[in-house]
Amino acid sequence: MNYFKVVALCAVAAAVSGCAGRAPAPVSVVQPQDRYMDCAAISIEVQSNNAKVQQLASDKGLKVAQNVAAGVAGLVIPVLWFGMDFQGTADTEIQALQARQQYLASLAEQRRCGDDTGEPQKVVAEPAKRPKAKPKTPPAPTASAAPPAPTEQK
Q1: 125 falls in which pLDDT band (50, 70, 90)?
Q2: How far is the C-alpha of 27 from the C-alpha of 45, rounded, in Å?
Q3: Cα 23–chain centre separation
Q4: Is the pTM here over 0.90, yes or no?
Q5: Which residues, including other chains, have CB under 8 Å from residue 29's CB and lie 6 or more apart?
């Protein structure tokens, strides 16, 4: 019977620890579609990332409250300690989003998104390569181009 209790306790602990939290899924700082983004797309993504950060901050507060409740209740029922989340998912994802925001800010600066030039913004896939311009030299005057001025003879 004692062996059965240990196996049952391990099974319950494994089941409860599976509910402890999700693994972090941080966003990558540089993404493949970045080179095709114009100023409007950058602005939309910045706003979307701000909303995600606010949601993650709210989730972080709820997770802290859940951990406190599980810790206190674990004093009575120790199995509940397995339900505590120590992964720091929200912190990891918030840091990744902040790094992405900094990258998007530098991208917007490169594209001059804040400047009002009066021209529509263009997507820059790659920096334009300009060929070296040769200085233009004026053509040498030819003898047949203009007749010589007449001279007066007496």
Answers
A1: very low
A2: 12
A3: 19
A4: no
A5: 96, 99, 100, 103
